[in-house]
């Protein structure tokens, strides 16, 4: 009888433990729920002025903020929000048409991911026709391409290759969206091939990434672009893709390192491996998105990584102010071989660099 009671108690404890593990990314305190937080962030986007690239075209931070709000609206079936977001885009294709990015740079071509997201939601072919050229021209060498760009293209890579870690979200996201919109594997396969190039060139043995080959610093948001880019690819890559094992290995190695470098409070630093550097929100949110997705998709061990992801989310939410703006966001940052440069980067409030990945986290948490 005693043995049966002990066995029953052990079973009960085991069940309680499993229940707790399964709900780490579901049950949150009041004010921390992803639906509530996501609504604040998504509707806040509607009130924002355009964030332009070079003062001319819709920028990548705005593009990703917009797409994040669309995905949140779709997942939560918020028809009002979806209508307002589409209405804003309609204005962009009419009286604001001059703000549509040209197709000559990695930071501009990524814009195609936004109309392709709208196409997948609405099935309106106008969005498809607008978005696909942004994906196609990443691999169509222009007549004025320089020698290096032609060399990259000759090796099968995008002529926009430059080996900055930021690129592995900019290239990945538009190619991934083109794959989802068309079903044509060429888009996802060339993105995967590009990712392997960047992994081989930039990932260090500790799993983190230099900003560029000549900039040996582990910049937070730059590493975040890599983490999010690998996440997007792993979500979509067919199981028989030859590059999938390499990308999964790079992802797993990075996630282990991020677990080790997470601050006790849950955030990550502007320079990830520098304990005296400041906690930065955009990179932290990108890491959280990659971790949440990994746990839910089964790429990461739930018992080991769900607590890491939960700690990050609980640390991130208090940085959102009463207006729905995220604080402590590193401004747009070019590469520079100067460690102090990264320490001294200005910090913004409400910058779309931070708003976007926070939204990614909300729909990753809400996904079944």
Automatic annotation (TrEMBL):
<dbReference type="InterPro" id="IPR012341">
    <property type="entry name" value="6hp_glycosidase-like_sf"/>
</dbReference>
<keyword id="KW-0732">Signal</keyword>
<keyword id="KW-0378">Hydrolase</keyword>
<dbReference type="InterPro" id="IPR052043">
    <property type="entry name" value="PolySaccharide_Degr_Enz"/>
</dbReference>
<feature type="signal peptide">
    <location>
        <begin position="1"/>
        <end position="20"/>
    </location>
</feature>
<protein>
    <recommendedName>
        <fullName>Rhamnogalacturonyl hydrolase YesR</fullName>
    </recommendedName>
</protein>
<dbReference type="InterPro" id="IPR008928">
    <property type="entry name" value="6-hairpin_glycosidase_sf"/>
</dbReference>
<dbReference type="InterPro" id="IPR010905">
    <property type="entry name" value="Glyco_hydro_88"/>
</dbReference>
<dbReference type="Pfam" id="PF07470">
    <property type="entry name" value="Glyco_hydro_88"/>
</dbReference>
């Amino acid at each position: 009888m005693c043995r049966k009671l002990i066995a029953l108690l052990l079973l009960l404890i085991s069940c309680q433990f499993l229940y707790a593990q399964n709900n780490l990314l579901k049950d949150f305190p009041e004010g921390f729920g992803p639906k509530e937080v996501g609504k604040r962030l998504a509707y806040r986007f509607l009130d924002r002025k355009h964030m332009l690239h070079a003062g001319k075209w819709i920028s990548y931070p705005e593009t990703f903020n917009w797409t994040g709000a669309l995905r949140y609206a779709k997942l939560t079936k918020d028809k009002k929000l979806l209508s307002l977001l589409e209405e804003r885009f309609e204005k962009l294709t009419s009286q604001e048409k001059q703000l549509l990015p040209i197709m000559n740079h990695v930071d501009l071509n990524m814009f195609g991911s936004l109309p392709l997201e709208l196409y997948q939601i609405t099935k309106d072919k106008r969005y498809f026709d607008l978005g696909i050229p942004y994906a196609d021209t990443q691999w169509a060498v222009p007549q004025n391409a320089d020698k290096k760009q032609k060399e990259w293209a000759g090796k099968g890579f995008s002529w926009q290759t430059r080996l900055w870690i930021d690129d592995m979200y900019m290239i990945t996201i538009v190619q991934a969206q083109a794959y989802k919109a068309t079903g044509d594997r060429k888009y996802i396969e060339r993105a995967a091939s590009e990712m392997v190039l960047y992994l081989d060139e930039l990932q260090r043995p500790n799993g983190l990434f230099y900003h560029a080959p000549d900039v040996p610093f582990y910049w937070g948001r730059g590493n975040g672009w890599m983490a999010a880019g690998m996440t997007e690819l792993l979500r979509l890559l067919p199981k028989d893709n030859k590059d999938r094992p390499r990308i999964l290995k790079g992802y797993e190695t990075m996630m282990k390192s991020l677990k080790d470098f997470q601050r006790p409070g849950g955030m990550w630093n502007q320079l990830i491996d520098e304990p005296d550097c400041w906690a930065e929100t955009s990179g932290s949110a990108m890491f959280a998105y990659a971790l949440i997705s990994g746990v839910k998709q089964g790429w990461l061990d739930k018992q080991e990584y769900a607590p890491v992801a939960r700690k990050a989310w609980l640390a991130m939410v208090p940085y959102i102010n009463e207006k729905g703006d995220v604080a402590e966001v590193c401004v747009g940052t070019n590469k520079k071989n100067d460690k102090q440069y990264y320490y001294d980067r200005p910090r913004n409030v409400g910058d779309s660099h931070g708003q976007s990945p926070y939204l990614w986290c909300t729909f990753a948490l809400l996904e079944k």
